[in-house]
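Need fresh eyes. Consider my entry:
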Amino acid sequence: MIVTYSKNVFIPVTRMCRNRCHYCGFRRDEWDLMDFQDVEVILLRAKRASEALFTFGERADQFKSVKEWLRKKGFKTFVDYVVELNKLALSYGLLPHTNAGILKKNELKKLKKWNASMGLMLEQVVELECHSESPGKKPERRLRAIKNAGKLEIPFTTGILIGIGESKEDRFYSLETISDVAKNYGHIQEVIIQNFSPKKGTKMENWKEPELKEMIECVRYAREILPPDVAVQVPPNLVDDVKVLIDAGANDLGGLSEITPDYINPEHPWPSLEKIERSLKGEYVLRERLPIHPKYVVEGWYSMEIAWLIEAYSDEEGYRC
């Protein structure tokens, strides 16, 4: 069986966010915004990566300071600014993958031109206490955004976060909901099964992490109900033995970076490819992919604006050449 991964750089455009999730150590109230020069420094170092992962707080332009900064720079919205960052990444030979929180359909359409793929974690399809201060974590709003991406034929990443107060039934229901969306729209390229990791200084810093058996259970159920061509992704930096989860049905490891940390979980460094290969014990084949999965490369789910780079980087099967 083939297990895929991509080589990326992680670009945390801003940590300012309208949501206050009780488990999040990424969010900041104080000014935190990368300008073009900050992003360019990272792109210049990305010699062997093919993906620029743009991640940031949701609706940062609701902050007066951000709105004023954008106005001075000549941007009407934060999405307009991100488009220019996407173009910058392309000029350095990296394919953008943007995680922007909830976006309206016209915003998704604007970003589609300049992104190989996009993403939004569903997390859970039920309302939870940990999201009580997070208007952007309303399940119906997130589902609407995911479906709108499907209507626009954007190769898309979503997933669930386990261990944040949900029940086993909630997890399965969330996966079933994602499976229905995948079957109806055909744009879900991968579903992440991510385990909660407590962060100091958050309301949930003393919560217990989910056990490995719970991860295995979710991976198995995801593989059972998702369409066969939808990858099941697990984070290799958040589990000690990734092979156990691959044995259970996972077949993607997400983006790995040689130069940038996982800014969402900085206490968990990325494992090296050599370490991952050793853990697989020769039972699986590791293959590099682009941020757009092979199926969507072959089927041409990308815009003219980024076609030149995707076609330069992919082989006839859609993997990274």
Notes: The beta strands are 2-14, 51-56, 95-99, 117-119, 156-162, 188-195, 231-233, 252-256, 285-288. Residues 168-185 form the longest helix (18 residues).
